[in-house]
Amino acid sequence: MSIDGNAVTGDSAAAKVTGAPGRVAEWVRFGVAGAPVSIALLVVIWLVAFATSSVIGGPSHALSQHVALGIRAFEHGWVWTLLSAGLWGDDILAYLATTVLVFLAAAPLERRMGSARFALAAVVTQVVGGLLALAVAAVAKVVDADWGFRLHVGMAVGPSTWIIGAAMVASSDMGTLWRRRIRVGVLAFTITLALFSGSLQDVVRLAAAVVGLVAGPWIVGRSARGERIAGTQREGRVLVAIVVAASAVGPMIAALSAEAVGPLAVLRDLFRGIPYTATEVRELCEVNAADPECRRGLLELRLSGVGPTLLSLMPSLFLLTLSDGLRRGRRFAWVGAVVAQVVLLVLSLLNFAVRFIDSFEEESLFYGLADPNLYRTLVPFLTPLVILIVLLATRRFFDVTAPAGTYRRLAVALAAVTAGLAVLYVLGGLWARNGFDHRPSATTLLANFPERLIPPVYLQWLDPRLLPVNVPATLLYEWTGVVFWLTACALVAATFLRPALGADSDAAARARALLKSGSGSPLSWMTTWRGNNYWFAPDDTSYVAYRVIAGVALTTGDPVGPPDRLRETVTEFAEFASTNGWIPCFYSVTSAVRAVTDDLGWSGIQVAEETVLDLGTIAFTGKRFQDIRTALNKAKKSGITAEWVSFPSAPLSITDQITAISEEWVADKGMPEMGFTLGGLDEVDDPEVRCLIAVDGDRTVHGVTSWLPVYRDGKVVGWTLDFMRRRSEGFRPAMEFLIASAALKLEAEGAEFLSLSGAPLAKVEQPDRDADAAEQAESSSLSTVMDSVLDLLGRTLEPVYGFRSLLAFKSKFQPRYVAMHMTFADPAALPSIGNAVGRAYLPTVSLGQGVRLVRTMIGGRRPGR
């Protein structure tokens, strides 16, 4: 029986009964056919597991001596353990995890790489990674005798080694987005395990990842995208969030793993202690309160038990919460993460001071360690320092602020939760007062309450005011802080889910409401983007979006508001800017604004050319539209269709492909995405923006365009093209197909026109209009010079951003051309205005990118595809 989606051959009744099993069987056959090496290795792993009775608890000690990787095995000459170690697991969970990894990672990687290359990658990373790990174990014994000894006597088994190694090898031939994600994710995961858990198998996994990273180009070659790592701000946030999350998970691993032995496992002592009972501590202290053992008992009592352990983990959980905010680019999350790392750094320094000083004493009480040393005390100091440096270096990524009042409400909510818990703690303590080592008063309980919110390890210099001795008192004493931190994490996480429209979210929301209820130009939706400030007319019927750069108030498109108030709006905004000491400049405005400013005696030059498709009678017929018809026909033959989606609500399978296509495009240029009037993924992530994607029958996205609404009298009358990206190895005429499809679909919906947006620093030569422009510019030689400079800049930047090629591409649709202007009151300010425009489009160009930009312009060739 076979099932192909259209017909069922064989008995139809049987097909209905066995349809699901049949699909599973078909999926398994596909896996076996496409990934024979992975499936064969999985079968072997399970067979040897059953044959050696290793399924439940892993290989026996006697068997491990001969199949597990370890220094002792090598001392006996059992070199085959380099390979055999990858065929056993530690327990049933390891075997089940291996099965999942083979189907979700190894098999897809093999189908991508080819079976021969996959087998080579698995063997090389397993063998060379094992040798590298043993070398690390030998060196570790010199640096850290305790960890080195554990590695020396340890034995390692696990198929995850060659799976991780193969993934790192395969990443060399992947697109930019997934190459970065796999490498950062795998390295963060393996480094965290090696540093905190620290078993020999953890070190072997890390070594295999490093070997795969180095050997990848020789096994599978390099990606056509090259090794460029330039990416968008959005992807940078994801990578930083991964690193910060790994730093938070590490201490949790150390705290929850009884066998953590890594160099950072010392942080486990921040969370756990010897399980003294309250009765034992009380009896010790009754004999001699000054006895160091009494003090030790009090400290370790605070660290023992489930409640104190969870409370000690809460800062790490809070840091994980902040990581989600970092992923979303939230400024609050960045500030919170920086503060957290500074606190950890200070505590690490105190740790060093106290432990190193105490090491000269006969007794060391800090963290209950008997053998503090300089190395194991300094290592934890390095972790927050590195994370802090990463956060400070990427500060510009995190510029998203929550709507006004969000954190005021958060503070009120946290204050209410704290007050409520304080009342409950005092009332509960009075009710269970006999459950403490001495009967507390309401005042004592209230004074003790703040300590209940602090992780126990940070209270080691304070003597406990009271200790619980029965179950109700223990629950109250140990779990009040856990409830507080969990609530705080939930409240903070909720703030990250609130939509943010810009630095002043209230003003942005107000502007968006005015735009949707009024009228604007084809570029007016760009005024709602982050980075803009807003000036509102006194009658609150219109506004101007602007940004102040180097003393220039640079606007984004036309003022938004009633057309009959355009002159008043332009004049009042200019006065507002001048009052603040700024140079007013209207950028990318229509001829209507140009006419107003010309009447005011201002100067102006054309800076872009907008292309407009008038709908209603559009038909891509005739010789002029040959390329468009060819794209539509090829798409139909290839099974590619155009589909509307909203990026915020689209399936992850679609948004991830769009993100990958965009990241690849940016990385190919080696330059950051331009901003200002050119949108990226952040601007696409808006429920009001529509995306038209080109997808095939396998749901592979070949191209994507985004369309911004154009309002007139509160109704959408047109759409403006903004975001355009095409898969490098996908359907080549994807853009022609998508724009033509958008025109046909939106015409059917009743739209009046499509704006294909403007091409900065590019224009169509039209003699009549050029003559008019020249005549207008005669009164200002500086304007003429600036026009020439912009023309030169457009030609110079063409190899990098291709604005003129973009304009030529849009001419395929036979559009109507509309000039876009820049107008300014003082021609003498043109140097400052030119600087402001450049910084608006490229606000984050690094020195290296600047050098690359100049080199590309001089070379006159276009980077990437």
TrEMBL record:
Phosphatidylglycerol lysyltransferase C-terminal domain ranges (all copies): 513-818
Keywords for this protein: Cell membrane, Membrane, Transmembrane, Transmembrane helix
Compartmental location: Cell membrane
Entry annotated with the keyword Ribonucleoprotein: no
MF annotations from Gene Ontology: aminoacyltransferase activity
Gene Ontology CC terms: plasma membrane
Membrane topology: Multi-pass membrane protein
Regions crossing the membrane: 30-51, 92-109, 118-143, 149-170, 182-200, 206-224, 236-258, 301-320, 332-357, 377-398, 410-432
InterPro entries assigned to the protein according to its UniProt record, in alphabetical order: LPG_synthase_C, PG_lysyltransferase, Rhomboid-like_sf
Protein name, UniProt field: Phosphatidylglycerol lysyltransferase C-terminal domain-containing protein
GO biological process: phospholipid homeostasis
Statement: the UniProt record of this protein carries the keyword Zinc: no
